[in-house]
Amino acid sequence: MRRCLTTLIIVGLSIMLGCTNSRPSPITEQEVNKFIADHDIREVAVEIMGEIAVVLFNEDKFTGYYMLYKDKDGNLQDQIVFGEAGENAPIVVMGSATRFPFVTVILNDEQILKSASSVAITFDDQTVVRKELSKNGAIIPYGNEVKGNMFYSNVAIYDAADNVIYSYPQ
Q1: What is the DSSP string of 131-165?
Q2: Which member of 96, 100, 120, 121 lies 3.0 to 4.6 Å from 140 by CB, making a disulfide possible if both were Cys?
Q3: Residue 25 confidence (pLDDT)
Q4: Where exactly are the structural domains of the chain?
């Protein structure tokens, strides 16, 4: 009887522990702001999407983004993707095509930047997501978690009158 009771307790605890949600808590805006301040980041835009946050930045020589997430212990982790600021390119486009797809856009061309109001991304499934510019760029999330990949096929920059002033690829 004692052995049966001990076995039931062990099995019950195993089931209970196995069914608990071991996912860390979502990233908060306060944690993102602290990360930006601690790392002295000149952010252009911030977007929290599901379990990740993206911080788009533009420094003198580099532009890119930090992708923030929490590990299984709830500690904030980061990955950085960056490239040259691209003075020769009118826009710099980066992003991620997996799980929480997004595209980042930095405007380098002063003429485009003077007129630009919003950015629209056309994803491969023909979903179009449009976002207002923040400073000289934007983070445009696909909006849904995906299994596999979701790439983009077009970037369009609009002015305040809703005219396309730049498109990539042209």
Answers
A1: EE-BTTEEEEE-SS--SSB--EEEEEEEETTS-EE
A2: 121
A3: 78
A4: 26-168
